[in-house]
Amino acid sequence: MDDELRALSPADEPAALLDEMVALREGIVGAAEPWLAAQGATGADARLTNLAHYMALRRRDLRALQRRLMRVGLSSLGRLESRVLPTLDAVTVALAALAGRPIAAAPAPDGDAFFRGEARLAAETDALFGPARAARRGRIMVTLPGSAATDPGLILDLARRGMDIARINCAHDDAAAWRAIAAHVRSAGEAVGRRLTVLMDVAGPKIRIEAVVPERKAKVQAGDAVRLTAAGLPVATPEAPFCAVVSLPAIVERVRAGDRVRYDDGKMEGVVERTAPGEAIIRITRTKPGGAKLKPEKGLNMPDTDLDLSPLTSKDEGDLAAVVACADMVGYSFVSRPEDIDLLEAALARHGEAAARLGIVAKIEQPRAVSNLPDLIARVVATGRPFGVMIARGDLAAEIGFERTAEMQEEILWICEAASVPTIWATQVLEDLVKDGLPSRGEMTDAAMAARAECVMLNKGPHAAEAVTLLDGMMGRMDEHIFKKTPTLRALKSW
């Protein structure tokens, strides 16, 4: 790389870079056209056009070009997610001035044009989540427990501390409880003088543990065998002293020897050793230190198994009546293909005009959802609905592996910013604080980095209120330092 930097003299570098930038822009516009045509998008659709340009740009390795631009004091192109062509045009115009050559390319964009993508993202965020608070850009979402149905004071306290969005998980409780919680959220918003919004997650085909044996405090260790059964009561055997019934019987028929199985967001992992009608034997290869307990309601992930499950279950379709009546947004679990958006749209259409205002939050939990994310975005943008993406890091980590989770969450943030789609940073934010009242150093750093998203989600727990207070202040301070990936260069006073 150093040889590349020394290849041209400082006098010749701007002219060479100018030629490269002109060719780069032309190549990106051309490469974006097939995807835009496939989506039925027109040049007037600024969100999808910028997204297409961003994908075309990021399929190229620009590292050497970045460093050469840095050497002549110009943009490194590293923060252009919301403004691909405006950034390329601005750099090209500057290079032309340095090279002393007129160019036929577009003129440098004015301030409004250059930052129009940021304005679009802010408008889309307001449309989905409601207006931002004066003290911070990002919103705070809190998952509410079922007890909130009979405890309006809990919701009011969260609202006073800074909660902006209440999340109701439709995998738990019932429509009567959800309606009571939503009513308390509306009342709390009136009491604090600002609009609070409601997200209701339909459960989807979440694979969960149901009944287990043994029920005592025995823990599964690496090397143990766990028997998964499709139905009936769990029965331990000498070969497999741990047994669990699964919530979706079909998965036991679909797994094959060698497939990996992960339990409770990766707290335990095993491999299918063998299968028989109605059961599968899992040999445990890894657990958290000290082992892990099998518990009802905990989730299973099977990253190697093609389960071919519809993301919208019959239960979900029944739950949509309450969602339409109570919520501002529906959280869509296990969405992975554009056709899944059509499935939800068809189900919502059965609820008439009342469902037309509902926003959609796609929960990105599977590798296929990551690879199809641009197409998912395009399909929802075509509906005109408010739309956001939840980076569901628990299931995503269990599917792709912990070692790639940080990388993938960054790529999701970038793609969504390019399309002006607000994001939710979810799963285990300030988890130790929420559960035990004392945060770890690592999760404090994670929470600070979460401020790059448009919303941060906290799980339910006995200390959720303290976590809201901490996050409210932290997000406000981080806003002074960084916007998305861009440092804002506030004056520092630490030394």
Question: Any idea what the CATH architecture of the largest domain is?
Answer: Alpha-Beta Barrel
Shape: globular
The whole-angstrom Rg is 25 Å
Strand order of the largest sheet: 1-2-3-11-12-13-14-15
Helix content: 40-55%
- What name is given to the CATH topology of the largest domain? TIM Barrel
Number of helices: 19
Average pLDDT works out at 92
Largest sheet: 8 strands, parallel, barrel
Unreliable segments of 5+ consecutive residues: none
Under CATH at level 1, the class of the largest domain stands as: Alpha Beta
Distance between the ends? 35 Å
Write a brief caption for the model.
The protein has 495 residues and is an alpha/beta fold. The chain has 19 helices and 17 strands. Helix 2 (13-39) packs across helix 3, helix 2 packs antiparallel against helix 5 (84-99) and helix 9 (175-192) packs parallel to helix 11.
Overview of this structure, please?
The chain has 495 residues and is α/β, with parallel strands linked by helices. The chain has three domains: 2-114, no CATH class; 120-205 and 310-487, Phosphoenolpyruvate-binding domains (TIM Barrel); 209-301, M1 Pyruvate Kinase, Domain 3 (Beta Barrel). Helix content is 44%, strand content 17%. The protein has helices at 2-6, 13-39, 46-58, 63-71, 84-99, 111-114, 116-129, 152-161, 175-192, 250-254, 314-326, 338-349, 367-371, 373-383, 393-400, 402-418, 431-436, 441-450, 464-479, and strands at residues 139-143, 165-169, 197-202, 209-213, 225-229, 242-246, 260-263, 268-276, 279-287, 300-301, 329-332, 359-364, 387-392, 423-426, 455-458, 482-483, 486-487. The protein has an eight-stranded parallel beta barrel with strand order 1-2-3-11-12-13-14-15, surrounded by seven helices. It has a seven-stranded mixed sheet with strand order 4-6-5-9-8-7-10. Strands 16-17 form a two-stranded antiparallel ribbon. A hairpin with a 2-residue loop joins strand 8 (268-276) and strand 9 (279-287).
